[in-house]
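Annual report, structural modelling task.

Input specification for the S-adenosylmethionine complex:
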Amino acid sequence: MNTPHYTARRSAVYLLDQVLGEGRLMSDLIASGKLDRLPPADRARAQRLANDTLRGLDRADRLLNRQLRKPPALHVHNILRLGTVELCMGGDAHGVVHELVGLMGNDRRHAKLKGLVNAVLRKMAGDAGKPWKDLRLPRLPGWLREPLVSAWGANPVNMMEKAHFAGAPLDITVKAGAERWAEMLGGRLLPTGSIRLDDVGQVSALAGFATGDWWVQDAAAALPVSILAPKPGEKIVDLCAAPGGKTLQLAAAGAEVTAVDLSERRMARVAENLKRTGLEAACVTGDVLEHEGSYDALLLDAPCSATGTIRRHPDLPYAKDGSDFGELIALQARMIDHAVGLLKPGGRLVYCTCSLLPDEGECQVEEALVRHDGLYTDRDALAVPGADPAWITEEGGLRLRPDYWADQGGMDGFYIACLRR
Ligand SMILES: C[S@@+](CC[C@H](N)C(=O)[O-])C[C@H]1O[C@@H](n2cnc3c(N)ncnc32)[C@H](O)[C@@H]1O
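The model returned the following structure:
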């Protein structure tokens, strides 16, 4: 059996090996060019296959456990997991089994297990995969499930897991004319002003992408800038700006924007996005904690666990184990303290994280209010289109969760607060 060296399936197995074996994030692997040898359509397919496998991993392992006496080496296990998920989701049995068994043959270390892979996948292609839909919804790993259950309760976490398993539609933010673009692209205008598209193929091939009329941004991720409510001519700094979704929103509103981020590679994406959309911002590659100035408004989208984005990034619960969260929480507090010092009198600071952990949201703001005399949360700022008053928290922030808008396709988890003094 001849299997071409680089294919979407082979690359999907590579991604699974890296995520599950090396704790690497898929976004980092893609950004560092690991799939660059694949044409764009195959690259997208490899990511989709790996994402589907990670979303269904718990189910695939349950089915495989019935066939295997003990788990094989990780690489072989990942081939079986990928094949099981594809077959159970209705993939073409001949194509899936043929290519994955072929991959085994190409690999000298594991070639002796080729027969096993062939037998298990053929069984899966027969009737073994039928109970797929009846298996329980995949659960988050314990290290993340436990703190979420203690923060939100078991039922809401079940609903979040349902949202993670369903995945996410594509949301876009437009420079102007949202209704017209929604109609042109066949999307739905959401109550917050974002446009939601289902079943999108290649994003860059859609009308309005090359011309820079819109950018990809989850509806929840667009809310911090709505809450900041930038005005034309205001001097605003976007701290932790890359890849730049919020910078673009601020610039589109006519603000005089400075975008700051530590990562040179990610700042290059901000520059690319500005160029494509024809918007302007001063770009600074540097540490937020060393940034000086005095601003009408600040946006601090701090680095965080990103646990609010699992429906888009199902690799996260497997690549991470929470061991770096303590450091992130300490950094967020230092960033808030520094940002407060950059505010002009009467200015406002929007703090946000795409996290589901109260330690990175509600608790950060509660503690900042204690540390800074006169600092308060502006609850009125949270009254933006589409934001449900029921989402407002005790200390005056807005809590967004993936299980909200369940009938409309969900939203990323976020925490947002507008601080003033
Ligand atoms: C949540 S992401 C920002 C997303 C961005 N605001 C957007 O909407 O596209 C967090 C960013 O913080 C940056 N970062 C982490 N530590 C930093 C620091 N000390 N100074 C500046 N940027 C930092 C990371 O490079 C990353 O791009």
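The first strand starts at residue 170 and ends at 174.
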